[in-house]
Amino acid sequence: MEDLIRTLSLGMILTSFVAVESRSLRRALYAYMAQALLMVAVIAAFATYHEALAVWAATALVTKFGIVSWLLFRAVSRGDETECPPRVGPVASAVIVGVIAVMAYQLVHRNVSFLAPTPAAEVEPFRTNVAVALTLVAVGIYAIVSRRDALKVVLGVCLIENGAHLSLVTLATTMRETVLAGVATDVVVAVVLLLYLIRGIEERIGSRDTGRLTLLRG
Fold first, then answer.
1. Dist CA 212 CA 11 (whole Å)
2. Could you list the residue range(s) of the whole structural domain that residue 182 is in?
3. How confident is the model at residue 210 (pLDDT cuts 50, 70, 90)?
4. Which terminus, N or C, of the chain has the lesser number of Cβ atoms within 10 Å?
5. How far lies 53's CA from each of 16, 33, 59, 107, in Å?
6. Residue 92, SS3?
7. Is residue 133 in a domain?
8. Residue 191 falls inside a structural domain
9. How many domains does the chain have?
10. Residue 216: inside a domain, yes or no?
11. What is the dihedral of CA 18, 132, 209, 28, to 10 degrees?
12. Which residues pair with residue 7 across a beta bridge?
């Protein structure tokens, strides 16, 4: 089971890279959907340690993979499916996000006892999961900062959420509050509000390009 959990969580790094770097929004959303399924699988695997996590796995399947993906695909289908030009060129961006991912993973994996001083974090698969979780957060922040397409910014928020949830299910596996915290911190509401805001921006300036928000002044 430990090897399975490690493989699933490491796969989340690959899907985050595709979600951020793909210029096709549809392909980026497919990558997010794959990551959502991996997240659900990780939570379900941890249910072998704490059966109540099966409830969180079921709700995550509905919210992360179902509702959020549906909302994002609806938003993409209303306009251009090609990402607005990002602030960083494709080659440079791929290199940067790769360096960020490698550095974040190595930093956390080597110093997990300092960053997450709990007995669980010292052993596998918990050690790897904590490193992956912080890597997803770092890549998500990079997406928010480097992308001008508002939908890519929303994807960055979703990556950060997955990172936070991975760390939660890893470090608080057997706590009663874990399931409640996981369900309560789902970003469905935030995604709905962000997409509503994006739709309003598109109607006003005819684009999802956040670099053109200055046109809304006055």
1. 35
2. 2-211
3. confident
4. C
5. 24, 20, 10, 29
6. helix
7. yes
8. yes
9. 1
10. no
11. 30
12. none
